[in-house]
């Protein structure tokens, strides 16, 4: 059997294969009112299709821990019980298909309060359901974004508590794994990188200070998340800057810290914190960053980045470059990618009885 279709157990959770779906925002929730941040029929159909297609693990899109933590007004949230109850419909269905349900919890930081991408993605104000973004330092992401408000230490502590509260709700909603979003230029990533963190207090300056907020979030979530359930962390392994940014060396060092604080897998991506940086893309272009973490630490990793072919995905896992692969755009194009790859590679995935004629 292909290594891509071997199960993997993390703590007390066994994931049936190594074909995983990463968090990809749908920007499809209501922006305000009692249904703000609540998943509805679109989200159910979107995730259900990938579960019936054989995906082993589905990480639900970046879900905000507070209203001002949303990337856009149309993002999902987990700050109230209405949202919690609505997520149960999705998790129940995923579990019934043999898919492990996970959710990414995040805060948009200085990149929050933006329009949906297909409407330009520009920052929006109160007239379009927007708000004033928060950040480690009053440094705008780019010329389109306004200067964010610098967080006070009291506000930082409040956000740490919001992550813990959202994790409690994720458990109540039926999720088996929580992933903390520390990548792509959002709040935690902003604290990690000296490019965006210009603070001079206990949360800025040295490596230890810049990683403090992230580790406080990890500790707060781990404290409320059951011991038998895994905790993931998504990171941007590099800012793609020659100097003055977060580096692959920092990522390897931080992976050890995360392991010591109870993180079970590092979901390795790159970029997103610098607006005009040049990134050399191509099939599997981010895999080497995951492979280095796996080679130099004891922390399991998942790889992402233009992985589209079954043979390529198999080699990444079989060669020990990563413990799993996360397919984003390819799963948007083909919800049954896992089933097709299993047929090509000689693996097995669960096929719903209703689809037995497709085997």
Describe it for me?
The protein is 33% helix and 14% strand. It is α/β, with parallel strands linked by helices and 359 residues long. The chain has an 8-stranded parallel β-barrel with strand order 3-4-5-8-9-10-11-12, surrounded by 7 helices. The chain has a two-stranded antiparallel sheet with strand order 1-2. A two-stranded parallel ribbon has the order 6-7. Helix 1 packs parallel to helix 2, helix 3 (153-172) runs parallel beside helix 6 and helix 7 (248-260) packs across helix 8 (287-296). The longest helix is centred in the middle third of the chain and has 20 residues, at 153-172.
Strand and helix layout:
Blueprint lengths: L7 E3 L2 E3 L3 E3 L19 H12 L4 E8 L16 H16 L3 E7 L27 E2 L13 E2 L2 H20 L4 E6 L4 H6 L14 H4 L1 H13 L6 E6 L11 H13 L4 E5 L17 H10 L4 E3 L6 H9 L5 E3 L2 H5 L3 H9 L14
Parallel strand pairs: 3-4, 3-12, 4-5, 5-8, 6-7, 8-9, 9-10, 10-11, 11-12
Antiparallel strand pairs: 1-2
| Number of DSSP E strands | 12
Whole-number radius of gyration? 19 Å
- Main sheet makeup: 8 strands, parallel, barrel
Strand order of the largest sheet: 3-4-5-8-9-10-11-12
Helix content: 25-40%
- SS summary, helix count: 11
Mean pLDDT: 97
The ordered string of helix (H) and strand (E) elements is EEEHEHEEEHEHHHEHEHEHEHH
Strand content: 5-15%
Kindly report how far apart the N and C termini lie: 17 Å
| Overall geometry | globular
Poorly predicted sequence stretches spanning 5 or more consecutive residues: none
Structural class: alpha/beta
